[in-house]
Automatic annotation (TrEMBL):
Protein name per the record: Methionyl-tRNA formyltransferase
Residue ranges occupied by any Formyl transferase C-terminal domain in the UniProt entry: 204-301
Broadest EC class assigned to this enzyme: transferase
Binding, (6S)-5,6,7,8-tetrahydrofolate: 109-112
Chain's gene name: fmt
Length: 321
């Protein structure tokens, strides 16, 4: 088949390679523009662009696909199929209607659950124990098209979004390779999604990173690992952001301590009261510093039992120790 591939992050690279390794011709790769990255804001190409150039493939990076020269270029190419994987833009109707075999998407969830841009992170943040990859025909709505194939992937209790990302990346590329022959032979039996079962996974915001100590320790643990290694969770200590990169829930029973109260600070880490049980902070990042083991930071920091994390958090007297 003659294919136009559209994708941006690392998640999409193995899918691009699966298309090529299956012997299909990629006429064009479409990805997002280069973006500033890191503290020095160095202009950095997306992983799909780097992979495409290594394979000698033509690449275009429209800021907005709708009405662009790239959209016109796709119409001129008249590909048999468009394959997308975490491209990051909604395809306009004019593009969806170009390929004779349609447009398919490699989506990192078990549709119709977790439609949207952050399905991997939010599955972990919500405490799910299984997720997967769905290959679907693209439609005008957000991840609403008919499902072609699906594979389940378990979520381990220790998975972060980073480790789950790797599992789903591999699973998605394998599933795509297994699905392409049926698409080429036009023998696909796609299944409509049940919209009544749909849930959504909107892109993450800064507010998603804020720790609410009133929640159970397990919920906060899931939040932090779902946000790691890209963002982590954060609270406030002495008026400054205080990031949490690693933690674990600790059963503690009933406590009169206010949620957010530091119960102890030791070589094991910082034990903090939550709405249910306690949370042991093991890897943290105070404002202006690098991420480090909590035990290392405690060697030079004063964090007495009774300190309260949260808005305006700081030391106070009389809290439970």
């Amino acid at each position: 088949m003659r294919i136009v591939f559209m994708g941006t992050p690392d998640f999409a690279v193995p899918s691009l390679e699966a298309v090529l390794d299956a012997g299909h011709t990629v006429e064009l790769v479409v990805t997002q523009p280069d973006r500033p990255k890191g503290r020095k804001k160095t202009l950095t190409p997306p992983p799909v662009k780097e992979a495409a150039l290594l394979r000698g493939l033509p690449v275009e990076q429209p800021e907005r696909l709708r009405g662009s020269e790239t959209a016109a270029r796709i119409a001129e190419l008249k590909p048999d199929l468009i394959v997308t994987a975490a491209y990051g833009q909604i395809l306009p109707k004019a593009v969806l209607e170009v390929p004779r075999l349609g447009c398919i998407n490699v989506h990192g969830s078990l549709l119709p659950r977790y439609r949207g841009g952050a399905p991997i992170q939010r599955a972990i943040m919500n405490g799910e124990t299984v997720t997967g990859v769905t290959i679907m025909y693209m439609a005008a709505g957000l991840d609403t098209g008919d499902m072609i194939s699906v594979v389940e992937v378990p979520i381990a209790d220790t998975d972060t979004s980073g480790s789950l990302f790797e599992k789903l990346t591999a699973a998605g590329a394998k599933l795509l390779a297994e699905t392409l022959p049926a698409i080429e032979a036009e023998t696909v039996e796609a299944k409509p999604q049940n919209n009544d079962e749909a849930t959504y996974a909107p892109n993450l915001t800064r507010e998603d990173e804020r720790i609410d100590w009133r929640l159970p320790a397990r919920r906060i643990y899931d939040q932090v690992r779902g946000l790691s290694p890209m963002a982590g969770g954060f609270t406030v200590w002495n008026g400054e952001p205080f990031k949490v990169w690693g933690c674990s829930p600790v059963k503690r029973g009933v406590s009169q301590a206010e949620p957010g109260t530091v119960l102890s600070a030791s070589d094991e880490g910082i034990l903090v009261q939550t709405g249910e049980d306690a949370l042991l902070l093991t890897t943290i990042q105070p404002a202006g510093k690098k991420a480090m083991p909590a035990a290392e930071w405690l060697k030079g920091a004063r964090l007495a039992p009774g300190t309260v994390f949260g808005e305006g958090g700081g030391e106070r007297e009389g809290a439970e120790s």
